[in-house]
Amino acid sequence: MNAHINPLQAEVAQDSLIQAAPTHTSQKSGSQVLQLPPRAGTTHTTATAEHHSRFEINGDAQAETPYIEHWVLQFKGVAAELMNSPEGLEERLSNMVARLGLTEVSAHSHYFGPGVSTVIILSESHLSAHTWPETGYMHVDIVTCVEKLTPALLEREARVAFAPTELHMAELRY
Known about the structure:
Distance between the termini: 34 Å
Helix content: 10-25%
Low-confidence stretches: 1-51
Shape: globular
Oligomer: single chain
Radius of gyration: 16 Å
CATH topology: S-adenosylmethionine decarboxylase
Largest sheet: 7 strands, mixed
Strand content: 35-45%
Strand order of the largest sheet: 4-10-5-9-8-7-6
CATH class: Alpha Beta
């Protein structure tokens, strides 16, 4: 199979969880590199609480960097009506934020016709979402400065809010 490799790659943390894609040894650094799921035209599995990726970015500077947890969620197969209204998207994301136990400070959305971008400022940092209703795709980043979110919690709340046919997630720690 001729797999198309997603250009985003990161070093796998030493204490990594179950990986969503095969790793290979980088010829440049000799470290293990995770290949994220390929783009359109290839087959890959749906992320579950037992099947997500965890990456460590700039791990050698960890002591100098405050705790930051960054979750990347890729939704596929989302109904267009759930993500093509600024008010509707903001409401669904605000409800998801509350169910995740995070604290919303403010929110702002912009309609691109089609598509919406929403940013929710959190006491713990922020959430950003960008939608492509014409393809059923949505990308969400959740960044926090607290260790509160789990793959199981994120998966449950993401599926409740948007009912995607596919959900892929990765955890980044800086």
